[in-house]
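Q: Here's a chain of 410 amino acids. Please give me its 3D structure as tokens.
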Amino acid sequence: NWYDTRSSRTYLLNPSTGASKLISDRNYQDVYSDPGSPETERNQYNRPVLAIKNNKTYWLGAGHTKEGQYPFIDEMDMSTLKKKRIYQSKLKNSKENLIEILDYKNGDVLISQQSAVDYPNYFVRNIKNGKAKALTDFKNPFESLKGVHKEVINYKRNDGVQLSGTLYLPAGYDLKNPKEKLPLLIWAYPREYKDLATAGQSTANPNDFTFPSYGSFIYWVNRGYAVLDDAAFPIVGEGDAEPNDTFIPQLVANAKAAIDAVDKLGYIDKKRVAVGGHSYGAFMTANLLTHSDLFACGIARSGAYNRTLTPFGFQSEQRNYWDVPNVYNTMSPFMNADKMKTPMLLIHGEADNNPGTFTLQTERYFQALKNLGAPVRMVLLPKESHGYAAKENIFHVLWEQDQFLEKCLK
């Protein structure tokens, strides 16, 4: 079916006659071939409809390529379905996002522009003469991160799959002569693919503005840690093979490749590496601590650890528990709790209503680990669901993580 092949088809449909023309047929995970989305406008009923000008539609694309990200606008003739590129960003040291075409005739487009240290601001760019007029002048509210080193690193897994991640190093760190070996924090989220080529594609952009958030480890670059954020963790199953049939070895291979890549640059102490993730990233963290000796500790937030409690599929797994009980059991950290000997911090919202990650998952996993003698701490956040909202809880999460990392890695 379409999901097994990751196939996505786009048609031009005449609703009156039912006649259709194929515009594109592609792997929707192939970001390098993404044609973008057609521009829309509001009709008299305030509904979004295709913006058709002189029998032409306009497609705005993110523009990810092997060489970097260069957003574009394509013009498509509705009769021939042929496209012509009328604009592509050429910015090297900053990034622009195409938001909306304001004037089709004159070529005015609303964009936002940012860099690693320049807060996103809005402009009107004329795509005919290239000039941009500023609409806003927001200042960077996170001055403490301004001197931080940021780069996208590319590396390979042991089977040749191309991987990437965004590396942060503390301000003032000597890159050319790195005498001090830093502890490393890795934040990641596994994703499933059906072919090696798309699994190796990267959407990381070093010109993305650095937003600190409780959703990553970026804060800790100011605490003297190296941080590899959004590290690629593809799980691939080509042909008839399902990605999750080899979930554990691929997970460990991704982690080892990431650690080795940063270590090769000379920045880190491989004995002081932590891993963390939220939701499926928490599931990843528990499995890495269970099935490898790569990490000194890990932080797992709002995860699921017993796959028999999600028996009719989870994430991208379509088979049920009774089809492949061995896959479910092998992937479940709860079933392998006796092997988990590494310090772990478990955090969960007390009112998590996400059907795949009820709070019970963390409570039962914690009880198993505790009774088996594992070094584990559990924190439940009052009134929080799958994502955290209350200032008090978010601050407490940051404090808990900081105390845990300082104890385990410093």
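Q: Can you summarize the key feature?
A: The two ends are 50 Å apart (CA to CA).
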